[in-house]
């Protein structure tokens, strides 16, 4: 009886903040050793205050919700602002707000010695519909450096971690080996055709999740805009601390590419400016 009680207590304590510690509760289902002991948010959109189901039948792998809290945070407003995929609740469109610690946005004058100054802004010629802002990493994180920080997200939301993206990818059928694969190669991270499920604008794109990933491009370390229409790049809140003598190389991101059915996992220099999708705590 004592063992049963202890297990029940641990289960309740773990689920209470809508967090799942994977090695304790999800290990047999996921079994990704890279993400053992990592917190993974699994809060359905139905638990978001002010969210109202407005589902699109053409996205069978996701459920859309209107949300009255989207104003100023999610490009495109409140209509179908959230998407629930595998019990995770994500922004359906890119973040658009200025981070409070970098408002107004710092001026970014390129110089070889420049560092990430917390710049954010629109792709050259923008803003473009539903594409949101591009953020240098410190702007995306609103000055924080710890994993799963609130960053530019509303209260009760955060910049998703590398492992939370891996959990999403697992939900959509990616193998564990591909989840862990890192790099720009088109060979890895193909199982499950995750990129095609997240966007209409990649190879065989169906957007069957409703994630509606756009190919928004990025701003480079030289302060030049590139790849709009070719790639969609999203920050995670995870750094590889083993590279901390070279912090610019240590920030994980995700990349949708027009010629790929998968989604790539690799590290960007913090001075690059990428899009952000927030995840509910």
Automatic annotation (TrEMBL):
What superkingdom does the record give? Answer: Bacteria
Provide the leader sequence positions. 1-18
Pfam families per the record? Answer: Fib_succ_major
Q: Determine if Transmembrane helix is one of this entry's keywords.
A: no
Q: InterPro entries from the entry? A: Fib_succ_major
What are the residue boundaries of the Fibrobacter succinogenes major paralogous domain, all occurrences included?
83-280
- Cite the entry's keywords alphabetically: Lipoprotein, Signal
Which NCBIfam families does this one have? Fib_succ_major
Name of protein: Probable lipoprotein
Organism listed in the record: Flavobacterium indicum (strain DSM 17447 / CIP 109464 / GPTSA100-9)
Lineage here is: Bacteria, Pseudomonadati, Bacteroidota, Flavobacteriia, Flavobacteriales
């Amino acid at each position: 009886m004592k063992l049963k009680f202890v297990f029940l207590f641990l289960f309740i304590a773990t689920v209470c903040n809508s967090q799942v510690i994977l090695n304790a509760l999800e290990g047999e289902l996921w079994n990704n050793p890279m993400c053992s002991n990592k917190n993974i948010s699994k809060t359905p959109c139905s638990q978001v205050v002010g969210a109202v189901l407005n589902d699109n039948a053409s996205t069978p792998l996701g459920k859309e919700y209107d949300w009255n809290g989207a104003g100023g945070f999610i490009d495109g407003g409140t209509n179908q602002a959230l998407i629930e995929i595998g019990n995770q609740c994500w922004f359906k469109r890119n973040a658009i707000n200025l981070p409070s610690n970098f408002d107004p946005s710092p001026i970014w004058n390129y110089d070889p010695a420049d560092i990430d100054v917390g710049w954010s802004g629109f792709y050259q010629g923008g803003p473009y519909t539903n594409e949101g802002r591009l953020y240098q990493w410190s702007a995306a994180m609103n000055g924080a450096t710890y994993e799963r920080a609130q960053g530019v997200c509303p209260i009760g939301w955060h910049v998703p971690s590398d492992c939370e993206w891996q959990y999403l990818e697992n939900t959509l059928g990616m193998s564990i080996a591909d989840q862990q694969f890192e790099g720009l190669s088109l060979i890895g991270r193909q199982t499950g055709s995750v990129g095609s499920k997240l966007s209409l604008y990649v190879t065989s794109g169906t957007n069957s999740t409703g994630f509606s990933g756009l190919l928004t491009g990025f701003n480079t370390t030289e302060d030049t805009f590139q790849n709009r229409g070719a790639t969609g790049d999203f920050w995670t809140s995870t750094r590889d601390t083993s590279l901390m003598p070279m912090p610019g190389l240590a920030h994980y991101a995700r990349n949708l590419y027009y010629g790929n059915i998968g989604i790539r996992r690799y590290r960007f220099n913090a001075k690059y400016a990428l899009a952000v999708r927030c995840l509910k705590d």
